[in-house]
Write a structure and sequence with these properties.
With 363 residues, this protein is an all-alpha fold. It folds into two domains: 1-50, no CATH class; 71-355, Na+/H+ antiporter like fold, CATH 1.20.1530.20. The protein has helices at residues 3-16, 27-50, 52-66, 83-96, 100-108, 110-134, 139-150, 156-163, 168-192, 202-226, 228-233, 235-258, 262-295, 302-313, 317-326, 331-355, and strands spanning 73-74, 77-78.
Amino acid sequence: MHKSSVNRNTSCALRNFKAPRAFGIPSCAVQKCVVQCHAHLRAILHILKRQGFGLAILASAALAFAFPGAFTEWCGVKLMSCVVPAIQLIMFGMGTTLSPGDFLRVAQRPWAVATGVVLQFLVMPAVGFFIAKCLGFSGELAAGCVLVGSVAGGTASNVVAYLAKADVALSVTMTCCSTLLSPLVTPLAMKLLAGRFVEIDIAKMMWEIVKVVVLPIVAGGGAHWLLKRQFDAHKALLDHILSLLSMAGICFTILALTAPSRDTFASAGVLIIVAAVTHNTIGYASGYWLTRLVGRFTRMGEVEARTVAIEVGMQNSGMAGALAAGVLGSAVAALPANVFSIWMNFSGSVLASVWSKKTDGGP
């Protein structure tokens, strides 16, 4: 039987359910209570389904924090050394979903893309730097805060843009642009700002971003082009598989990078959470309000403002974790990215829930 038919039959059965009189309570009151409980249960299950990714990330962090020894090394191989291949797999999957139209859209929406890029690579790194200074972070932990703000937008922003009734196509285009610009811009921002805390090798970081992000995306695009007929014929199935692989890759990254840095989090956990929440909130707010300001002189409105806000606020924390492990060689530097990942997925889902109920209103 079809799922919708089952739901309709269940609802009808509950409405027609004649509850017996119990403990002096009228049967109509008992019946109403049963129907309301069923409605609340369905609402809770719906929320859990939409928050599955966020819950999985939270569970991964909790496991790594509770049992760090179990996620530090497997069969003589340090899990931290497997972070880069995991992110490469995610980027390959992203590459298989791209099309030439995603890049041509830059010419159609130049103001939105430019606003997002400026905020992504100028404002967010600077915000990370000032947050680290204000909270008294130093060394690798401070560099990690800057790193979170210096990377490109994350692929999770595309999903949140869809849920928030923003412009998904524009979100994908902005993610592509910031990702392809990151080999040049991210190392420069890190050298300028994070270089005050730790030594930054620009050439090494550039190559690491090309190796971890750009080459897998190009390979994924090439695979899609060579096997276009097969990809198009099984698009829905492949989308589900790639989504699961991306979720698994991010969860593995959090496990591998949180476990070795548990002691650091235990000593500065509250401040790291404050840093993540502040950074993420400033990203959303600056993206939304600057787009509305620029929109006064261009053709950008509420939908574009939401899209830019989500794209700027949701950073590619997986890339930040991979760079922390591959270039800085530090699980501590990856800690801000891990906490940011957990918080941004939660805040993004809440923001999407609020905006999805407002079709053309304000924030």
